[in-house]
Amino acid sequence: TNALRLTRSEGMGKLYYRAFLELYRPVQSAPALENGLTISRTYYPDRPECLQGKCDPITSISLEESGAPILVRLDITLPNDMYYLVVADHIPAGVEILNPKLKTTQLGSGAPEEPAAAPTSLLSSSFWNWWYFGQPRIERDQIRWAAESVPAGSYELTYRIQPVQVGEFNVIPA
Predict the structure, then answer these.
(1) 8 Å CB contact between 36 and 80
(2) Beta bridge partners of residue 154, listed in sequence order
């Protein structure tokens, strides 16, 4: 169905061409992949008790009801030690990643501030594991952590997003 036909008329000279095909899959049908590690993403209200997993996850939010930030938690399971690991998470359209280093970033809804390392560092069952991942790199559509070496185990990365656009948006699997 995607036939490509190149034709030319008779005569001297070379024919130059360039062709490429871009194919986009609907987000709803994109499966999660498991290539040596497992990642799951969960959204929570941005409250201190949600950092400990004591809140129910949210699956949708209305911008009119609550303009409060949302806590995003990535649960990562590594069956083996990994070297040069990059964890990148794409955000849904209609939200922005809150960068606590910027003085222009709205940090919350009056809730008590978390420790400075909480939004940007690795949180795990052991406090001493925080140094595996460096500070995240925040881009317009994703956040990315990098680590030179991470031992097998379960880890948790958290960050905050702020809904800014009204609409119905989807996000690819973690």
Answers:
(1) yes
(2) 77
d(CA 161, CA 80): 30
CA–CA separation, 26 and 30 (whole Å): 7
Encode pLDDT of 88-115 as tens digits. 999 988 889 988 777 665 554 444 444 3
Q: Which of 77, 68, 33 is nearest to 50 (CA)?
A: 68
Q: Give the chain's length.
A: 174
Map residue 56 onto helix, strand or coil.
coil
Structure tokens given for 108: 């919350």
Please give the order of strands across the beta sheet that includes 137-138: 82-90, 142-150, 137-138
Contacts of 42 (CB under 8 A, 6+ apart): 57, 72, 73, 75
| Interstrand relation of 153-163 and 137-138 (parallel, antiparallel or unpaired) | unpaired
Single pTM value for the model:
0.70
Q: Which of 66, 62, 69 is nearest to 107 (CA)?
A: 69
Tell me whether residue 47 is exposed, middle or buried, using C-beta atoms within 10 angstroms of its C-beta: 0 to 12, 13 to 18, 19 or more.
Answer: middle
CB 79 within 8 A of CB 36: yes
Over range 52-59, report the average pLDDT: 84
Which two tokens mark 46?
A: 């941005």
